[in-house]
Amino acid sequence: MVSTIIVAAGSGKRMGKSINKVFLDLNGYPVLFHTIRAFEEHPEVDEIILVLKEEELAYYQQYFTGFGFQKVRQLAAGGAERMNSVRNGLNCLGEDSELVLIHDGARPFVRSELITEGIEQARRWGAACPGVVPKDTIKRVDEEGLIYAELPRDQLRALQTPQVFRTAKLRELMERAFSKGMLYTDDTALFVEAGESVKIFPGDYHNLKITTAEDLELGLILMMDVD
Fold first, then answer.
1. Which of 30, 48, 122, 133 has the fewest CB atoms within 10 Å of its CB?
2. pTM value?
3. What spatial distance separates the first Cα and last Cα of the chain, rounded to whole Å?
4. 227 pLDDT tier (thresholds 50, 70, 90)
């Protein structure tokens, strides 16, 4: 079984809004609606676990049930950090989950082809993540802001989601990290720190994460391009 955990327990601070950015309007529907729909409509995804802030679970049940999503099997409360939220989502997965996709709730433009590629690569490698070559030149600077190292752009990747893992291995590595008191903001770090391979495959520059008000405006343009 292929599972998906959509992590949407963030806030709207950088957006400058008082509500979670995933509930903001994007072309007539909440951002989160578009994100869920991408996985709901994918033929290989069997179940979706949605992680929200505890105080927003009732909001989802009130306003989203009418959309008729059939694969959203369970809601989970988010934790203090992203890794806590992912762990709570993992605890809700079906017992026969083989692969799990971890996806940002604020990435509503993920394409079906990207989901398919992630699943295929994770079946082969055990862990896979989409990434894009940074468009800007990136330098390392010291504490005074002076450049001291050149980073070859062709060796760099800006990571996206969904990140896809063998479910059992992700659980194992996550519990190991928690037992050591280690927290990571990116799930691939669990595998890298354990010496496990993570396959980076080509991502999609349109797979935008909506974080700021400018991102929301760009998202509307992307929606018009799709239409």
1. 133
2. 0.93
3. 32
4. very low
- Provide the CATH topology of domain 2-226: Spore Coat Polysaccharide Biosynthesis Protein SpsA; Chain A (3.90.550)
User: Residues with Cβ < 8 Å from 89, sequence gap 6 or more?
Assistant: 5, 7, 49, 51, 76, 102
> 187-223, pLDDT tens digit by residue?
999 999 999 999 999 999 999 999 888 888 787 777 7
Rounded to 5°, the CA angle 20-103-220 comes to: 55
CA dihedral for 17, 22, 25, 26, sign (positive or negative):
positive
Instruction: List, for residues 154-189, the tens digit of each pLDDT value.
Output: 899 999 999 999 999 999 999 999 999 999 989 999
The number of beta carbons lying within 10 Å of the beta carbon of residue 206 is 14
| Beta carbons of 76 and 92 less than 8 angstroms apart | yes
3-state secondary structure the chain: CEEEEEEECCCCCCCCCCCCHHHCEECCEEHHHHHHHHHHCCCCCCEEEEEECHHHHHHHHHHCHHHCCCCEEEEEECCCCHHHHHHHHHCCCCCCCCEEEEEECCCCCCCHHHHHHHHHHHHHHCEEEEEECCCCCCEEECCCCCEEEECCHHHCCEECCCEEEEHHHHHHHHHHHHHCCCCCCCCHHHHHHCCCCCEEEECCCCCCCCCCHHHHHHHHHHHHHHC
Sole residue written with tokens 């951002």? 31
Phi, psi dihedrals of residue 53, rounded to the nearest 5°: -60, 145
